[in-house]
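Handout, page 2. Input:
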Amino acid sequence: MAAFRYTHAVVCRIPLSLRSRAEIELEDAKKQHETYVRLLRELGLDVIELPPDEALPECVFVEDTAVVCNGTALITRPGAPHRAKEVETIRVVLKKELDLPIIEMSDSNAKLDGSDVLFTGREFFVGISQWTNEAGARAVAAAFPEYPCTPIKVPDPKHLKTYITVGGPDLLCVGAGKEAQEVLKRMEREATFSYQTLTLPEDDAANVLYLNGTLVHRSIDEIPHSFKVFSEKIDYPRRSVNISQLAKASCGLTSSCILVRRSRHIRNL
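Output:
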């Protein structure tokens, strides 16, 4: 599906100050992030890697700052006010380095974290959470009017992509836990299209990346039971990566990059 073909990824290295947000083994986290970035490059992406900003502890979680679809970027307004400056850096990168058209959120009351925005290739679902409100969901709908956009309530303090992500064409990966299944039922009731679902024994396994024909999921050490399910049920290329440290503070796989498809090649930073 063309919706999941990408040419570039934007990532940000880990600041020391991330330790103020979660009990993270920083050296392990840095090694895991380096492996993650290397994997993105192996999957054919030009990676724009930003330096860490110690004043912004959560800057590694770049996904929350923008929603990119069909070569257009909606600049978000993260629900945590202290993250506002992260947006300024990403706006410059998307506009100046990747030459993307930029859409700004006009409603000053809107809150939107990219980790609450799930694009299936056919429609958007926006998690209404501690971090994202109805006005934020309306901003997504206005930015990408060619797609249906449905708000979905998710339990605090988590994001929508903690519970459900896209694992392949018309395939949703979801945890087996009660909260995840309730979110899935809400989505299925409201969905414009029908999807297959892959239910995973460990809720942590539901956060996956599908790009350029490959499913990226967490390592066997982190999700042994779900790893077996992936091995049995997925018949297209898979790669696994250990993201255990960053996952203590975020969705993990999806939250650490912004994926972009450019129609013409540009110089890698």
